[in-house]
Amino acid sequence: MLAWAVTRAVLLLALFGVWRYPGEDVRPDVAVIYHGWYEHLLTGSFPVGDVTWQYPPAAAAAFLAPAVLPFLSYASAFYLLACAADAVVFALLLRAARAPGGRLEGAWLWVVGVAVLGPIALARYDVMATALAVAALLAVARHPRVAGVLAGIGAMVKVWPVLVLAGVMPGRATRRSWISAAATVVALGLVFLAFTRGAFAFLTEQRERGIEIESLGALPFHVARYLGLWSGTSQLHYGSFEFLGPYVRTMSEVVLAVTVLAFGWLVWWRLRARAFSHAVLYDAAFTAVLVFITTSRVISPQYLIWLLGLGGLCLAHRCTAQRLPIVLILAACAFTVLEFPIGFGPVVRSNLPGIVVLLARDGLLLVASVSACRRLWRSTAPPRIPAAAPKQAVRVNA
């Protein structure tokens, strides 16, 4: 508890301007962009036409939440509410540690990992979506319908939380959780359609996105640009720096195809898996989200917050098979903070230091993804039946 309080106080002091965190300033997204959305959302309409808006409609709740603290500035209220969501995740991981067979390693992963990522962890709303996902996973065993509702709300906030249901035990629990999740998504969708304007415009406004410069698919362009073999450029596009130029659209299609193949593998794993347990529930959620991140056209630094929360649940269970991938993710957090905010300039310009850091971070994500998939498969595959020993001929003496 003390370690959590001290590290979060340090992060908040950086966000409040008491001390300067090295590198790029992570605060303008909240103070300018989020605040602008807040003002627009108060009118009952979503920011249609704003290329930086790329979120499901329930994300509006996160951007409107600072209204509950009207005596503070918008940015200060948002940071404190994000810290409150951080505290919820920490408390949930401590609760998981107190269960039979539980461990404190998961809570420590959360404390250390978020501290390593730096102030950006509390300057984005991803920690709020992570709290919903962790709560959904912990509710599966006793209240699968509640878990489905939480996952459905999470899907309407950030999409990915619905993936945490990937490892729910087949049968009644799966039916109840997934039906509840689907019903929640439909119900919320109808509410937004009835009472707001432009709630689902984000679905059609991201079609022209390129390859975000921090993603795995961007690495060939970084290297080619550094060697003078590519004539494209990196520009602020759809709210983040993306590569624009020759072959970018082709790479975008390749990345999308890889994502489809990866999720095809997850479906195949689900159909073939035979062993299910609490450890498998957490391991499958971690693996599914890790694959989602690694194969995405966009890998923002705050995405690793999702993996810290889900990885924390894995480590809270002594039977997890994901220890090595989680260690790799923690290492990736260290390289992520070197990439943004500390060394973002070299990354944008495709300078050698930026390329090296990206190769290390994205390489760790790729290795962790492959390892997580292999470990999940091995831990849930049907047991092998040993072949019967060949019968030896018996010699009968006449």
From TrEMBL:
It comes from the Bacteria. The keyword Transferase applies. Its main location: membrane. It is a multi-pass membrane protein. The chain crosses the membrane at residues 71-94, 106-125, 145-166, 178-200, 247-268, 280-297, 303-319, 326-348. The keyword Oxidoreductase does not apply. Coiled coil: none annotated. It holds the Pfam family GT87. Belongs to the glycosyltransferase 87 family. This is Glycosyltransferase 87 family protein. It comes from Streptantibioticus ferralitis.
